[in-house]
Amino acid sequence: MALRKRGKAGYWHAYFDTIRETENGPRRVRTTINLGTTDKKAARALESELMRKNREAILLRRVRTILDGNSFQNGNSSIPRVHRRRRLPISEALDAAEKHRELGESTKKIWRKFEREIKLKYMDQLTNEAAFDYLQENCDGASGKRFNNVRSALNSVYRLTLMESGLDESPFARIPQRRLQSKHQRPFTEDEFVRIYQAAPEPWRSAALIAWFTGLRQKDVFLLRWDDIQGDVLTTVPAKTSRFGRGVQIPIHPQLAAELAKLPHVNERVLGAWKYTPNYIRFRRAFGEILDGLGIRDNERGIVAFNSLRDSFVTRCDAAGIPRHAIRGIVGHVSDETTDLYSHDLTTARLVQGLPSVNLDRVVKTSKKRARNCV
C-alpha cells in the first residue's frame, strides 16, 4: 500500500493491489481510495486502518478455503459450516462513508431518501439493474441535472464503503449520466433591473444591487461579510467552489460602495439586518414572486431568476470590452485545462469599476401589478 497526494485540493489517496480470479486466471488489480484529508498524519492513520482491514480480509479468505476443503473429510457427514461474512446495512452506510470523507448536506439528504424507499437491508443486495430502476422511478421527468446529481450522490456513498460492503464496484458506477438539456437563465435589461430595485422590499433590494455589480450568486450575497470588504476590493470564497478553496477578488463599483455605506451594521454579515432562511419555502419563492408581480417573464433567451443578475453582470462586462480572462477571474469561472490565475489580476479587473452607473430613481414603465412584500 502507498500514499500519494492528488488533485488541486491536495487530498491524500491510498493505493493497494489485490489479486482477483478472472476467466483468464488470477489478475492483479490496483485499487485507489480517496482518504478525504490533506493532513499527512491523518492520512497515515487511515492507511494503517485500511491495511488492518485488508489483512483481516486475507486471513478470512484463507480460513474459508481450509474449512471448505475439510468439510467432509474423515467420514464427517455433517452439513459444512459456512462462515457468513459481515455485511454493511444500508442504514449504517452514511456513518461508514463519513469515516473516509465528509459528505455534503445534499448528498446526505439524497441518501436518506434512498434509505427510506429502497426495499433492501444490505448494501450488497442492490444490483446494477435495481440501481437504474430506482433512478428511473425517482427522476422520471426530472432534468438531466437532477438525474445526474442523484446518481452521483448515491454512487459516492457506495464508492466510499466498498471495503465495508464487500463490493468490488458501486452498482451506480456504470450508469451513464444524462445529457443536460436545462435552459439557462437570461440577463436582465437595465430597465428590468431598475424596476426590480424600485419594487423589491429589503433584503432583496440590496441583494439585487450587490449581485448586479459583483456577479455573486444568491447564497454568496446573503453570506457576504463586512470583513470580506477591504478598501475598494471584495474578496470571498464562493460557496459553490469552496471545496477547492478557490477565492475571487472583485473591485467594488463606486455606486455599490455608496449604497453599502448606507446599510446598517447589525452583525458580521453585510445583509445581517435581515434573516437569511434559504430552507424556508416562502424565502425561496420570494424573488420569483417579485418578478411575477412586475411581469418579468421567461422568454426565448432563457429563464429569469436571481442568478440572472450574474448573467447581467457578465453581459455588461462584455459590452464594456473587459477581457474575458478578467471576467472569468471575477465570477470564478475556470476552465478544466487552466488554474485560477486570473482572480488576482486586479489591474485588469478594476475595469469593472468603470462600468456605467445606473439611474435607480428614474421612472420606468411597468405593469399594473405590484411586487408583493414576500419577506
Q: Can you characterise this structure?
A:
This protein has 375 residues and is mostly helical. Helices cover 41% and strands 10% of the residues. The chain contains 14 helices and 6 strands. The strands form 2 sheets. A 3-stranded antiparallel β-sheet has the order 1-2-3, covered by helices on one side. A 3-stranded antiparallel β-sheet has the order 4-5-6. Helix 3 packs across helix 5 (144-160), helix 7 packs antiparallel against helix 8 and helix 8 packs parallel to helix 12. It is elongated and about 90 Å long.
Give the name of the CATH architecture of the largest domain.
Orthogonal Bundle
Distance between the termini: 56 Å
Strand order of the largest sheet: 1-2-3
Strand content: 5-15%
SSE pattern, N- to C-terminal: EEEHHHHHHHHHEEEHHHHH
Q: Say what the CATH topology of the largest domain is.
A: hpI Integrase, Chain A
* Biggest pleated-sheet summary: 3 strands, antiparallel
How many separate structural domains? 3
Class of the largest domain, according to the CATH hierarchy?
Mainly Alpha
C-alpha geometry:
elongated
Count of helices? Answer: 14
Q: Helicity level, as a percent range?
A: 40-55%
How many beta-strand runs?
6
According to CATH, the homologous superfamily of the largest domain is: Intergrase catalytic core
Helix/strand/pairing category: mainly alpha
Q: Report the C-alpha radius of gyration, rounded.
A: 27 Å
Low-pLDDT residue intervals, each spanning 5 or more residues: 71-84, 336-344, 368-375
Average pLDDT figure:
82
